[in-house]
């Protein structure tokens, strides 16, 4: 790979990371708005469909485009021309056949899925959602081919455009429900239609950009090799095995919610809860999902900005430098996750009241947010393993975590209700974290991943932040809880100031080394604080 291609690849990876961050922030925010407009029942209904819709999105955004880009880059590097007969048609046939079968399976099994979810109203919604998978092949092929040519802008722009369409339609639908124009179950139909229209908008953007790029391109087209056999077996292996594995590595939190969608309400009802009560409790439990997602993506995005510098070859050639990258990614993730969990645990009553208009479920959700630590570190660790070529293995780990979540839900929800679901999420992500750590130590023998962490600095920063938050909470909390605008100002102030204090103490006590700080974004500002500790 030439220096120019490497530069385009790194810039493209950064562009995709930014687009992903923007889209995931949108996803977290609009679900909070949805709950405010439709209540916990409406939120429950959306969350029952969200995992299925999310799986289609992940396949079209991360899984199959990654596999297709790998095939595209390989063929181009060999000097081959991508022809309809030898490349595009086989890929379209494989993906098209797979998704037609998947759509048919979901459509036919919709009554069973609705029965598992404990609500027969979802039969039609699951059947409608199945249609979304038919859009995936075309979107994935257009994204994957452009990525294989190191053109990441089409994927990034189509992702943001798709999410904007989805968000706008869902919020409008939720508002119509809140005004009584639509019935509460219409939120499910709105969610599916929003995803379908979002998918078609992504397809339209990709077709436009692909047409524009072809017109602007001045590449010299070579002559394809005639009579060359299509490598069907290789295409099948890479597209289905690699593609699905790559998608699963972006579905950690999504799979946790999928398990809850089919076990939470039925198990609560079986244990004696009423149907409406069980659905409301599921809606309350799901309040924690946007918060977990928001903090996890912030923590992992900062750390994952370092990941493109890691590869199996670089580990051999530049071991010291890559070791520093890996340690920095893990350390930053641990510090952000730990600080966020401690801070949220203390101010969660105010956050719950601000975002969802009451403090229902605060104690159960305080337990659930512990999952932030496991999810953030697991995602970073799994991303490091993927960079070292272990995509399928990390997908297997995620699959094991999903099975643990399902089994834990079946056992713990009848015993402890919402607490049981929280324990199940934390436990399953804990299993995933353990598997990832074991594999990291196996893959990177002798590398001090966790022994090199300054636990003293983390303890000092945590203690300073906890004391500060408790003091400010004790003085102001009771005066702002009943006025939402004052509560908003309070939560923003205490969150930013608490995080700032945590970071300040962490750097002052040497939580990160100078070399680690230099890798991070905006390192010049962090270095000023760090170097200040060395001055007499």
TrEMBL record:
Keywords, ordered alphabetically: Cell membrane, Membrane, Transmembrane, Transmembrane helix
Main location: membrane
Entry annotated with the keyword ATP-binding: no
Source organism superkingdom: Bacteria
CDD domains: MATE_SpoVB_like
Record-annotated membrane-spanning stretches: 12-33, 53-74, 86-110, 122-143, 164-185, 191-209, 238-259, 291-310, 322-347, 367-388, 395-413, 419-441, 453-475, 487-507
Stretch forming the signal peptide: none
Compartment(s) of residence: Cell membrane
Lipid bilayer topology: Multi-pass membrane protein
Pfam family, one: Polysacc_synt
GO cellular component terms, A-Z: plasma membrane
Protein name: Putative membrane protein YabM
Gene source species: Oceanobacillus sojae
């Amino acid at each position: 790979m030439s220096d120019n291609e490497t530069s385009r690849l790194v810039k493209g990876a950064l562009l995709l990371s930014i687009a992903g961050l923007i889209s995931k922030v949108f996803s977290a925010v609009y679900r909070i708005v949805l709950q405010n407009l439709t209540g916990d029942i409406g939120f429950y209904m959306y969350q029952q469909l969200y995992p299925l819709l999310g799986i289609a999105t992940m396949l079209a955004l991360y899984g199959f485009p990654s596999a297709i880009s790998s095939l595209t880059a390989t063929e181009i590097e060999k000097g081959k021309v991508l022809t309809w007969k030898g490349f595009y048609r086989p890929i379209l046939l494989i993906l098209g056949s797979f998704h037609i079968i998947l759509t048919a399976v979901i459509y036919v099994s919709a009554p069973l899925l609705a029965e598992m979810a404990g609500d027969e109203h979802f039969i039609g919604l699951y059947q409608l959602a199945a249609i979304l998978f038919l859009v995936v092949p075309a979107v994935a092929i257009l994204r994957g081919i452009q990525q294989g040519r190191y053109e990441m802008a089409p994927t990034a722009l189509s992702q943001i455009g798709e999410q904007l369409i989805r968000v706008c339609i869902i919020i409008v639908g939720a508002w119509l429900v809140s005004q009584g124009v639509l019935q509460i179950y219409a939120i499910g139909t709105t969610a599916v239609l929003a995803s379908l229209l979002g998918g078609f908008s992504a397809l339209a953007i990709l077709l436009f950009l692909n047409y524009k790029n072809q017109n602007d391109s001045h590449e010299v087209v070579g002559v394809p090799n005639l009579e060359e056999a299509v490598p069907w077996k290789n295409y099948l292996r890479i597209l289905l095995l690699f593609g699905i594995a790559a998608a699963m590595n972006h579905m950690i939190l999504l799979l946790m919610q999928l398990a809850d969608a089919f076990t939470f309400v039925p198990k609560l009802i079986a244990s004696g809860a009423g149907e409406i009560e069980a659905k409301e409790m599921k809606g309350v439990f799901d309040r924690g999902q946007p918060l977990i997602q928001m903090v996890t993506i912030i923590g992992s995005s900062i750390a994952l900005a370092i990941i493109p510098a890691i590869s199996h070859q670089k580990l051999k050639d530049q071991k010291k430098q890559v070791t520093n990258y890996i340690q920095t990614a893990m350390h930053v993730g641990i510090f952000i996750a730990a600080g966020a969990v401690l801070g949220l645990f203390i101010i969660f009553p105010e956050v719950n009241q601000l975002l969802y208009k009451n403090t229902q479920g605060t104690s159960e959700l305080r337990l659930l947010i512990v999952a932030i630590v496991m999810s953030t570190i697991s995602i970073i660790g799994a991303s490091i393993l993927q960079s070292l070529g272990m995509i399928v293995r990390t997908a297997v780990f995620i699959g094991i975590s999903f099975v643990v979540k399902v089994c834990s839900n079946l056992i713990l929800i009848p015993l402890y209700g919402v607490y049981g679901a929280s324990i199940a999420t934390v436990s399953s992500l804990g299993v995933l974290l353990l598997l990832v750590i074991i594999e990291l130590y196996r893959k990177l023998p002798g590398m001090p991943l966790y022994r090199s962490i300054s636990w003293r600095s983390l303890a000092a920063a945590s203690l300073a932040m906890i004391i500060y938050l408790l003091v400010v909470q004790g003085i102001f909390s009771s005066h702002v809880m009943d006025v939402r605008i004052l509560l908003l100002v309070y939560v923003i102030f205490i969150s930013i100031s608490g995080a700032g204090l945590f970071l300040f103490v962490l750097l002052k006590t040497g939580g990160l080394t100078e070399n680690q700080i230099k890798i991070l974004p905006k390192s010049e500002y962090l270095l000023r604080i760090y170097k200040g500790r060395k001055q007499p």
